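Suppose a colleague, Dr. K., hands you the sequence of a protein chain of 522 amino acids and asks what its three-dimensional shape might be. Before reaching for any lab equipment, you can write down a predicted structure in token form. Begin with the sequence itself:
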Amino acid sequence: MADTNSSIINIAIIGGGAYCKDLLEKTTMDYRQSDVNARMAAVADPDPQSPGILTAKKLGLITVRDYHELYDPVYNINLLIILTPDEEVLEDILKTKPTSIRIQSYHVFNIFWKAISVEERKLRERTKEMETILNGIQDFILVISPEREVVDVNEAFLSKMGYTRENLIGRKCYEVFHEVSRNQYEICDSNCPLTKVVQDKKPGQIVLNQVDRTGEPRYIEVTIHPIWEKNGKISKFIEISRDITVRLKEEEEITRRLEMMVEERTRQLQETHNKLLHQDKMASLGKLAASVVHEINNPIAGILNLIMLIKRIIQDGNLEEKDVAKFNQYLDLMETETRRTSRIVSNLLAFSRQSKMELGRVNINQLMERILILNSNLLKLHDIRVEKTMDPDTPDLIGSEDQLQQVFMNLISNAVESMEPFGGGVLKIDITHSLKDDKVLVRFTDTGGGIPKENLPNLFEPFFTTKKGKGVGLGLSVAYGIIQDHGGTIDVESRRNQKTTFSISIPIRQDLSESKRGGRSS
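The predicted structure, expressed as tokens, is then:
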């Protein structure tokens, strides 16, 4: 029956020798799966046992003994390929063939076929080289079709996964890595790296956590390379899988060792730090002890000398009115030195944090009035005039009355000592309430000599002092700590030979949960 599909070129071969057999075996028979619109349709040879005839029968092609039969329109032959070198056959065909049938002579075809064979041989050798290379790679390499079918695989995958090429090629990739079931396929498809490659339109990589046959976890790094056709569709996927379990375990081991080294080094540094800290504490303690002995010894020695002087005057008898005046002067000096000794001891006690801070309600205005009464003799003795401004609406705050008194006493004492070289001065004390921040603000401003600019950054550091022979440098450090414990701040501003202002800000409300209530109420 004639083929009605005129777009297909039907080819007949004349000569059924080995040449014909080779051509049939290397040429696609199903034109629908090829990119050409031609197909092998028939073979003619007078010998029914020739290799070409036998191969054609196996392929289901038309076979005839006389090539003249192929002229019949029922076969719809469009091209004759002559594979016999017999010139008489060529001349006969040229004379007898219909004009609708074209021919390809033996010599012309032989030239092309030999050229094709050379390229085929080169391609086969190249293919063999590539197969050798791919099979030598220990990574798993699979070639997967868009339908998720395995079309090729390297030897490493076959040997390590226990498959043969025959029972693997053509299987779905998800069947290879999972048990065959729809549910697992759906799980695989939802996380399939091939799907992500199609969506992203670029190569992709993912690390899969799998379990091997022994139940041990394995980490597989999968890289997918899509192969694109000219029409924008994917023709196949190249999947390269690499077992990175050993590498990850080595990295984990390296990380673990580094962490252990860091922990050991941290422990050593901590030990060294503790030793240095202990040494520093011991050095500070030695410095403190030396300073305390020196500072306390001075006023005690002065008091002792004055007592001995008074006793000698009394022993001499005949006391006069001028002696009484001297006694009063000596007593004032003894009072000053005793106060200084008491202040040094109080600062040391506060600095060592041996005293317990008891919180309660504190009226700052009343506390300041009481402090000024206690220091009235000191202020009068040094001709210090106090100008105070106290907001009567200042609310009580929660704090330690004793410790706040220590801070204010210390600042007043420092102000007096600052103005002493000038023969007196003015001490301004301002107490206000900040409604915005709900804090009490206390400012002490003196008209003394001021503080050098270079000393301001170190003013609140322990043992820092500019009063040679008059202190151990703990007063302001203790004051800073007390105000900080109250959640407040203390700042200083100073101008040389003009004034110095200490500003204290204390919140009204404090958390009483960490300290025992029961401090004295003002």
